[in-house]
Amino acid sequence: MLAAGDPYRIDPLTGEIAYVVAKRQDRPNLPPTGCPFCPGGLEAPEPYDLRWFTNRWPAMPGDRAEVVLYTSEHDATFASLGVAGARKVVDLWADRTAALGARDDVAYVLVFENRGPEVGATIAHPHGQIYAFDLVPPAPLGELSRRDLAALGPAAAGREGERLVCAHGGWRAWVPWAASWPYELLIAPDVRRADLPSLGSGDRDALATTLVDALGRLDALFAAAMPYMLWIHQRPTDGAEWPEAWVHVHVAPLYRSGGTPRFVAAGELGSAVYFNPVSPIDAAAALREASA
Ligand SMILES: [Zn+2]
Ligand SMILES: [Zn+2]
After folding, report:
1. For 10, 14, 178, 213, which has the most beta carbons within 10 A of its beta carbon?
2. Distance 102 CA to ligand 2 centre (A)
């Protein structure tokens, strides 16, 4: 835990956690000249294939925020990386999870991506981020505390896989039963695996294949780049066993129809109850038909 007076705060009314890092407001919305992630740019002075670095405008102090560049190609998408390119990203995610998780002051490594200006990605170059928390954050802790492993197993895609979108090598992408986003996806292995570092080569290839397929379908759905938020839940790195940890990917795509964002509204924030205008079965059927 960080010391008193640091930016870590627990709201006395709601119990929710906030890191207040006011200087983040100084960060640029858009780089003034060129792309900082392209080779020769500010964050990538040398040619590269994949690259990670500590975030210059971190949301948390203490080298806890990193940026992962998926490729040197500015116009690429996760889907266009192909399976081989996506596999390299999976390997880098696993390596950074292991390196950050080995720190005594890191209890949880959250790998995530904001894709598209509509969800706040200030730079178009394909990239993701990593936060290394000194605590197990409430979202994954809540899931782990529920201990409902069936929520991620093969049965989670519904009767006869009615909400299944695609499956590759023992991994599935499906629309969750109680999806709060219209085309929300979960991606997980059929058999429990705890975290990214413990995945073998076959699982890493299967995860890469499933991500490329599923994210490609999101772009094909409305024939437009789908803005999304993606995050990976995995075993905490606080040294406890966490026998219920089951690595999985959440994808929250923004659009509910072509170009129409689904906004989280006051009635939802005010109640923590979500209203989804698309049936998960219909969403899965549409995504099964959409192909990149
Ligand atoms: Zn670029
Ligand atoms: Zn989760």
Report:
1. 213
2. 22
